[in-house]
Amino acid sequence: MNISTESNLTALLLSEAFSGVAVVRHNGETLVKFAGGLADRDTGRPNTLVTRFATASVGKMFTATCLARLEDAGLCQLSQPLADVVPSLAAHFDKRMSLASLLSHRSGLGDYINDDSDLPFAGMDVARLDRPGAFLPYVLKAPQGAPREFSYSSAGFILLGLAIEELTGMSYPEAMDHWVLEPAGLRSTGFPPMDDPPTDFANGYLPDGRTNAGHLPRIGGPDGGIVTTAADLQSFFGCLRSGDFLSQSARSFLWQEQGRINAISDYGHGFYLTPICGGMWPGHTGSDPGVSARVAFSPHSNSSIIVLCNRDEVAFDVFRLAMEHLNALAS
Question: pTM above the 0.70 mark?
Fold first, then answer.
């Protein structure tokens, strides 16, 4: 075990820089279970292990899971062209654009936001962004090209949300409840309005100390913004390991490596794939103003890293140290 990595992880969690929760499990043993910082700075309400956090693009793996369950139920095939599923979009997008290519960010579609911006939704009427269709005017302006190598596109996941609505006849949040959240028993996970969040929610804070109120879509959608807890994520990962929740073919598809996208990670279909403890762990990263999150789990053992934070960036440093700690244990 790398004592230096473990001590650095502990020091970061105990520092003023950290605000959120971190849970690390290895083969069923909990190595880290920590909550720190404030969920509400005005009232002094602390973050706890049951606090609910916005998670930005971590929600993409929920969208991918919903589509996989719809395929398991015979309602679609992920190889289908988007235009066959949502005919109203046929005039706007390349007919080669399939659900699978959107899930893997290899459809050729650009993005409707600048993820590198400090305030990516600046200039948008976020109060009206409360359903996938409300994002469509922005998505229609995204650049398009032929299917190509990986190019991260939240716009593509907005289109996948429209596909879910078409396939189910439900609103996106209703479909997620019916097909994913309720079957998985995730009682603290969902899409509460950000202008009236639940009392156990962690307010997001910008670097200057302001809350992120008014800087995020009113209701999270298929490209990100689901609200959840560390415990619900652990339950979700347990379901994803189970053939009762997703077929083996669906899991193999979601976690099929499509190619290296950065120094350490590959991407599958709606999931990052990160090398940890000798295997590729599915999960996702999330970053919004006042939000940072990164999660991953072993498909084969009760092992996972969950870091949810109500401030920018810090989750990624915690995740990296936790990953190094687990890799040291496995070496």
Answer: yes
